[in-house]
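Worked Example 4.2. Consider the chain below.
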Amino acid sequence: MTDEELPEGWRVWNEESQKLILTYRPDVFNSDAYPAPCLPTIHIRKGKPSRKPGRNTPAPDAPWYVQLYLEPDVSTSAEAYDSREEAETAANELAARFSGGEIDYRELYQVPREAYFDKLDELLGG
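Applying the procedure from the previous section yields the following structure tokens:
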């Protein structure tokens, strides 16, 4: 997957054989006002999301999971796919929905971050 294939604002942050991380506007979410942990990311990974890195290597037939994170403990539910290609397609569609303002990120938070929400609204045209 390349940056050119992704919706506007999204970038490939890290790519490994069993994991790929996409980021939204890393140019904005890198300061004290919007700390790096608030960088929206989409994780594409083989094996269960709860699996610890470097442990319990997933089985060859393990599904691929796609999950949007707004912070390490704030995320959507992980969706499973049979192949990396299907997961990458789903991640691209999720990124487009996020960029299009179709994801209600406020619903994912127990404790709102109003300034953060305002900035996301601004970036997403809301």
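Strands lie at 10-15, 19-24, 41-46, 64-71, 74-75, 79-81. The chain has two helices and six strands. Compare this with Example 4.1 before moving on.
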